[in-house]
Amino acid sequence: MLEGIIVQFRRLILGLALLAAGTFPAVAHTSEMAFVLLLPTGYYLVGGTLAVAITFGLIYFVPRIWLDQAVIRRWSIGSVHLPKRVWTSAAAFLFLAALVALGFLGSRDPRANPLPVYVWSLWWVGFTFLQALLGNLWRWGNPFLAPHRALLLIAGRRGKLPLLDYPDWLGYWPATLFFLCFAWFELVDLAPDDPARLARAVIGYLLVTQIGMLLFGARAWLGRAEAFSVFLGFIAQLSPLRARRETGRRYSLTLGPPGARLLDITPLPVSGVLFLLLTLASVSFDGLSRSFWWLDLGGINPLEFPGRSAVLWQNSIGLVAMWLALAGAYFLAMALGRAVNPALGTRRAAGLFVTSIIPIALAYHFAHYLTILLVDLQYGLRVTSDPLANGADLLGLGRFYVTTSFLNDYHSVVMIWNAQAGAIILGHVIAVAAAHLLSGRAAEVAPRAAYLGQIPLAVLMVLYTLFGLWLMATPTAG
C-alpha cells in the first residue's frame, strides 16, 4: 500500500515538474548580439534558472532503473566499410596545405580568403557540431597522422620510435596549454582572421604536433597532448551514433541515447578536469569580453569601441581569470559534495563528474556560434567557388550574394532562438542525468546521500545558467 502511494506521488511530481519546465524558456550562453525580449528581463532570468533547477529536482523522482535501462539501449542500423585512416588523413593534410597556401597567396580580406572561413567557421564551429552528431569523424579526418607516417618512412626508423615514453604526470597539461593559446589567439589576438597570420599559426602548430608525435608516439600525443584531438574526442562521446569494428575495415553502426558514452569515461586527472573547464570558460569569456560591463571596467566607451588593441591586456588577464574562477567554483562544489557523500574523495569526484560538463560546453558552443555559422556557410560557398577572389565561379553559383536578412526577420529569429534554447535545455538535462548516474555508480552509498552530494554541482549549474542568461541579455559591442 505504502509503496503504491510513493509511486503515485512520484508520478504526480514528475507530471507537475514537466508542466512547469515547459512554461519557462531556458537559455544559458553567450551570443554575438543580444536579443531584446518582449518579456521583462526578471521573468526571463527566473524562468530559465527555474527550468534548470526543476530538472535537477525532477531527476530524484525518476527511478534509477529507468535511467540505467535507457542509457544501455542501442539499436542496430547496419554496417559501413570505412577507408584506412592514413588515406583520409592524407587527404585532410593536402586540403589543409592548400588552405595554408591560399592564406599566403589569396585575398587579404578574411571573408574572401578560404583559410579563415574554413578554420574558424566551417571547422571549429561546423565540424564540432558534426562530431557531436555523428561520432568521432576526427579520427579519420585529422591532418596529423599522414605526415607523421611519411616522416617515419623517410627516416626509416618506424621500429625505433617513439623516442620517449609519455609520462603519466604530464597528463593533459600540454593539451590544456595549447587550448589556452588557441583561445587567446581566437579571442584576444589583434588579428586572428588575417589570412597570412593564421597560416603561420597553422604551420607552427603542425610542426609542434609532428615533433610531439615523433617524441612520444602518435597514440600518446594525439590522445593526451594535442588539444583538438582531445577536445573533439570528448565531444564525440555525446554522439548517439557508435561505430564498432567488426572485421577489417567494416564497422557496425548503432544508435543510442546521446551522451550515454560519458558514463564509460574513467575519472580524469586534474589536468583533464582543467582542460574541460577551459573549453567552457573560453566560450563564456567570448561573450563577456564584448559586454558593456566588461569594457566599462577598462574605462572604454562601448559605443566607441577602438578595437582589440585597447583591451589586449585586459582580455588576456580576463580569459585566464574566467578559467580559474570556474575551476575554483567547480572544485569548491566537489568539496562541498564530499561533505554529504564522503564515499568519494574531492579529487576523484572532480575527475568523475567533470564529464557531465561536456554537454553544457557543447550547448554553449552551439548557441554561441549558431548565427555565425549560418552566415559563414554562405561565405564558405563563395570562397570555395572563388578561392583566389579573382572572379572564378568553380561551383557555378553565378552572382552569389551573402545575406544576413534572416537575422532581422521575425520568424527566422524565433526559429534560431528556439534552437538555441532547446540546445541549452537538452545540454543541461543530459548533464544532470549523467551526473546522477555517475554518482550512483561511483560508490556504494545510500541513494539519498548520492543525490544530496550532487546538490553543490547543481547549484553551480544554476548559477552558471544565470550568468549565461545575463550574457545573453546584456548589450554587447563589436
**Helix-strand sequence:** HHHEHHHHHHHHEEHHHHHHHH
Structural class: mainly alpha
Gyration radius from CA atoms, angstroms = 24 Å
Give the amount of beta strand, in percent: under 5%
* Rounded mean pLDDT score: 81
Number of helices: 19
List strands and helices in order, with pairings.
Elements: H1 2-21, H2 41-61, H3 64-72, E1 75-81, H4 85-105, H5 114-134, H6 138-141, H7 145-155, H8 173-187, H9 195-216, H10 218-225, H11 227-236, E2 241-247, E3 250-255, H12 270-288, H13 292-297, H14 312-340, H15 346-353, H16 357-385, H17 410-442, H18 447-452, H19 455-473
Antiparallel strand pairs: 1-3, 2-3
Helix pairs in contact: 1-2, 2-17, 2-19, 4-5, 4-7, 4-9, 5-11, 5-16, 8-12, 8-14, 9-10, 10-11, 12-14, 12-16, 14-15, 14-19, 16-17
Task: Provide keyphrases for this structure.
478 residues; 2 domains; 3-stranded antiparallel β-sheet; 19 helices
Verbal overview:
The protein has 478 residues and is mainly alpha-helical. It has two domains: 1-61 and 272-478, no CATH class; 75-264, no CATH class. Helix content is 65%, strand content 4%. The chain is built from 19 helices and three strands. A hairpin with a 2-residue loop joins strand 2 (241-247) and strand 3. Helix 14 runs antiparallel to helix 19 (455-473). The radius of gyration is 24 Å and the shape is globular. Residues 1-39 have low confidence and may be disordered.
